[in-house]
Amino acid sequence: MTTFAEIAPDLEHQAIEVPSWAYGNSGTRFKVFGSPGTPRSVEEKIDDAATVHRFTRLAPTVALHIPWDMVEDFGGLTRYATDQGIEIGTINSNTFQDEDYKLGGLTHHDPAVRQKAIDHHLQCIEIMGVTGSRDLKIWLADGSNYPGQADIRARQDRLAESLATIYQAIGDQQRLVLEYKIFEPAFYHTDVPDWGTALAHVQALGANATVCLDTGHHAPSTNVEFIVAQLLRLGKLGSFDFNSRNYADDDLIVGSADPFQLFRILFEVIRGGGYGPDSEVAFMLDQCHNIEKKIPGQIRSVLNVQEMTARALLVDREELAAAQQAGDVLGAHQVFMDAFYTDVRADLASWRESRGLPGDPMAAYAASGYQEKIEADRVGGTQMSW
Ligand code: PSV
Ligand code: MN
Questions:
Q1: What mean pLDDT comes out for the span 96-107?
Q2: Mutation test of ligand 1: which of 214, 215, 283, 385 has the most ligand atoms closer than 8 Å to its C-beta?
Q3: pLDDT at 190 over 90
Q4: Helix (H) or strand (E) holding 364
Q5: What is the DSSP letter of 93?
Q6: 170: nearest Cα among 139, 138, 134
Q7: Closest CA to 352 of 2, 86, 8
């Protein structure tokens, strides 16, 4: 049995990117609730993201979404983030909120709309040059609602062409990361519905194009850890968007409903070399906090990932391999489950304290007065929201 002391050094490598949009107001198509203390500017979002990092040392970067996080001076914003102790990470494009994109963006039948969507991505790449971001993450709302509505084959060709144009602007140190999603907002077909389609496109582009796996974007019962294993095997797993889903793209707190799935995913990540100083896999959250407080929601999320990473690291891989080799079905299963059922919370608390961090970051945040302060200070202005 592997011990916590043996795996503790590996925990140092953990870095989980938080999304700027998690700090803004969000909701469903029924209602977006406001909440006291919500940021009114990108800087205030960065303040909140930096707070999550301060209490956990797990979230050194924040992802931005363009144009939600558009500012005049990205150089200034980058310095602002550094002053708060974090950096700007992935740049997410947005081709789903402009009237022109009603029937698609990068796949649109009208070359003018396609060009507009391409230009938006080129602008994102320019911003990345200023912020020092490595990844351009593309999630497309493109698709159709009715059979016959669109030429789904031609849309694939147009997508390939659009992506190739964008990819040409990606620098040597940058990556294009393509995210797939089975449904929504298009409900009959989406243009990048699954990892196979995403893989086909990024493989055609080249070495600096990879796939983003959003844990909420699959059909129910999909074996997500298998996809992780396969993409890592092919060297094409670029990043994760972590969240928890029950029915659809719920974007709830990662590991909240099914910590075992998170454990299984993280086990395959570790098994496939996707975790550690040499890994290029980016771990991000793609979440919203519609009814709970946002900063503690993010702290809970990164802690959940840390906890399941620790448990996944505890799997005794030698014992597991021996049992698998011996064809010992239940023996192998037990090695796996023993690690999952190991409660690491007390060990993690002591480990955090040994590094000058609060043993219980949730309690420390609640006692810090930060929430009360932002609720009192952030009065007036327009709360950020999508
Ligand atoms: C929409 O489903 C979505 O949640 C995608 O997962 C993107 O990653 C995110 O929005 C930000 O654009
Ligand atoms: Mn996502």
A1: 98
A2: 214
A3: yes
A4: helix 361-368
A5: P
A6: 134
A7: 8
Q: Which ligand is nearest to the CA of 94?
A: 1
Whole-number pLDDT of residue 386: 78
Q: Domain 4-377 maps to which CATH number in 3.20.20.150, 3.80.30.20, 3.30.565.10, 3.30.930.10?
A: 3.20.20.150
Residue 146 has a pLDDT of 98
pLDDT attached to residue 184: 97
CA–CA dist 264, 314 (Å, integer): 12
User: In the predicted model, what is the mean pLDDT of residues 95-106?
Assistant: 98
List, as own/partner pairs, every contact residues 371-379 make where C-beta atoms lie below 8 angstroms and the sequence separation is at least 24, other chains included. Answer: 371/37, 371/293, 371/295, 371/296, 374/36, 374/37, 374/44, 374/47, 374/48, 375/36, 375/37, 378/36, 378/37, 378/38, 378/39, 378/40, 378/44
pLDDT digits (tens, 9 = 90+) for 57-96: 999 999 999 999 999 999 999 999 999 999 999 999 999 9
Which H or E run contains 26? none
Tell me the CA–centroid distance for residue 108 and ligand 2, in Å: 21
Ligand 1: residues whose CB is within 6 Å?
Answer: 65, 92, 139, 179, 181, 214, 241, 249, 286
Provide the whole-model pTM: 0.98
Q: Tell me how far the alpha carbon of residue 246 lies from the centroid of ligand 1, in angstroms.
A: 16
